[in-house]
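Office hours follow-up: a student asked to see two folded examples consecutively, so here they are.
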Amino acid sequence: MPDDTVGRFLAALSPEDRAGVAARPAEEQESLAEAWEQELAGDDELDVLDELSPAEAEAEAARRVLGKGRD
């Protein structure tokens, strides 16, 4: 399991989204990964989900971060 923020963020993405994000510049990947960490830390719903399934909480936060970029 990757221990750097960008690696963990990429691992939380679906394969299709992972490929798209991996093709972006490193600065953008880092920005998305930081937003992902903030989403994980700042949402109480994700805290509950994290206790049940940490991987699903990370995946949901990743979907939210990417969704915000598409709006």
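And the second, which I mentioned at the end of office hours:
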Amino acid sequence: MTPREVWTDLAAYRAATAELAPRVRPGTGVEAIRVVEGRGAWWERLVDASAFVVDEPDPAPVAAHDRLAAIGVPVAVVRRRLRADIVADAGAEALALRHIVIDAWGGRTDAAALLRDAVGWARVLAGGPLSVVDRADATAATTLALRGPGGVGVSVTRAIGGGVGGALTATALGTRRLEVRVDSASPLPEVAFDDEEGRRIRPVRRESPERLALRRILDATEAGAAVSDLAELAADDAVLRHPSR
């Protein structure tokens, strides 16, 4: 099999490309998988490649998502607080959910993306689209009251403090208690289930987010499978646009 080219200037993705050899190699051709940084108007840079990886995208406006919906090539989105493998671990067991609570905290620089990722976890754990019941914004905090499929109640709170990065805890309450802890200061998220038999912690995922993203896009393009990352990103950004009361 001819290796796919990966077009990137980011050192972490160059390292991931080397780890995935011989499936991939560095290159800049139109058939390459292009890695795009998610700062600024990142959606305007999704040109001249056969597939894309978008690294930590900033929240995008409606017009950008309308444009992205028609892009026609696979796009994997890297959200380190909402990794695809951790999402799979968290959804591995049925919980018969009754309520979901997401608490996030971090610096002002990434506050919007942190809130968007907290909403993403709410969507994942609720098992589908969210509707906004209410939103309240204060100087250093935002609280969202959401509703998921089947009327599941969801509370999302984001607090803004000093420093950069961010962390969140997602708790789903049902027949079991699920807790997800993600911290930008640690590369090892934790997924744990609690029930009458005690606490069970999922094995730690040690694959780098860059390698995971490249592997996902490779698997999808080789299998001709759809990648839902952009649609999920659009759904989460839509919740962020709901006005405060």
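Two things to take away from it. Residues 111-126 form the longest helix (16 residues). The mean pLDDT is 93.
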